[in-house]
Amino acid sequence: KEKWYELLECADVFVLPSRDASETFSLSSAEALARGCKLVLTRSAGIASFLQDGYDACIADSNNPSSLQLQIERALSSSEDMRMRAVEAAREKFNMVRMLQEYQHLILRA
Description:
Elements: H1 2-10, E1 13-16, H2 27-34, E2 38-42, E3 58-60, H3 65-77, H4 80-93, H5 96-109
Parallel strand pairs: 1-2, 2-3
């Protein structure tokens, strides 16, 4: 598992090219954000609903290779500010306390 984190820390960009809504949430994307990778994903990836295109991620149209290529190029040429916002987004949106509170809310609502 440590090698996975080491690879993420060396990467500039993490790409999740989901083609349909079957990818409800990607833990690997959240881990990549937390490790400081700029994230490129498609709109069909569930994690896209937690992120803002151009702010803390680059979001491509689903099933559109040209759009995905454009977003990868955009991420590679973006400033380090996007990387820092991605790290902050991961810490704010996907931390253990918040996730437990969300689960608790779902359980109590059921």
